[in-house]
Amino acid sequence: MLSRHIASKLRGLETPFYLYDTALLRQTLESVVSEAGKFGYKVHYAIKANYDDHLLAIIREYGLGIDCASGNELRKAVEAGFAPEGIVYAGVGKRDKELRYAIEQGIMAINCESIEELEVVNALSSEAGRTTDVALRINPDIDPRTNHCIDTGQADSKFGISYEEVLEHAERIKALDHLNIVGVHLHIGSQIRELHVFENMCRKVNVIVANLERLGFTFRFVDVGGGLGVNYDVPENEPIPNFASLFSIVHNHLYVGDKEVHFEFGRSIVAECGELITRVLFNKTTATGRKLVIVDASMTELIRPALYGSYHNIENITSEEEAFDKYTVVGTACESTDVFDENVGLRKTRRGDLLSIKSAGAYGMSMASRYNLHDLPGAVYSDEL
Ligand code: LLP
User: Fold this and answer.
1) Is the peptide bond before 16 cis (omega within 30 degrees of 0)?
2) Among 58, 147, 240, 299, which is least packed, fewest CB within 10 Å?
3) Distance 59 CA to ligand 1 centre (A)
């Protein structure tokens, strides 16, 4: 981990802040681009994972497209210089003004998640005098075997149109004359570590695409979403996720002829290059004997532990102590769930020590809030140190 090696440089900086290892980000991008290139796959970056300008500029250098989930994310991507033809836009609830903007930009596809949305995009495109490229985001009904807070592709989920509904309304959808239905999209969930789940996904996609084409649809691409997990337990063991394994699974199980195959990776691109650096404010012991370390970050900088019970590995990067102790690391917010982790083995920890909360580059800063009127955290980049 970068912070351990440069701890002395970090000591004097105002905490908390995100530290980004841009060299690791570049290595990760090189890996995803070269592995995808072996099969001609196209990769989009899911900007919701982290919309930091400095990181986006690096990601753009590697030629990735963007997956966005709101009008503002779309605007951010366009302003960061990503070509609209490489941008897809999903989301269950897009406002009319967001759809108008996407239509005007002529993006690669609006991934529509209901029949009603298809009708609205058709009407707004007609008003704008345009024909819009859209993809059908289909709910594949797959259990991705991940934290249920972050699965998205099970039958009862709010995401995507049910396959049955598409079949039922196929004629109505094909009749929308200001739409080109150019693709099929799905996304089964996030932080998926059991890669065989993607085999099931491919089998479903094969059936969905074949049946819809039989009904008269013609698709140029299949977009299978993101979801590749990272190693939160011991990030040092796997700083770059195994893109090659995922691509080879898809290559061996997806049969969609010569259609383009697209991926939308968020976490797997940026999680490991980011750490949240926080300073120990106080130590105390509860009446029950629990040793608390109170740090100057909180759920307002990194909400994942409080929101999903997610685990992030924590290390004391400045302590010189040989001895370790067990601590509960808590934040400053006025919420009982503002706990980063319990029973963490740390070198003996004192006021002023710096802790690194690792693998925090994805869904960290992008989910930060100003609860308790906390300031938003800053960012420090390894290539600017
Ligand atoms: N495509 C779509 C349509 C998505 O909904 C998502 C993530 C992605 C791609 C990127 O998925 P990834 O490669 O990052 O797994 N805040 C949660 C994760 C929410 C993911 C939402 N959708 C967390 O911190 O774990």
Assistant:
1) yes
2) 147
3) 17
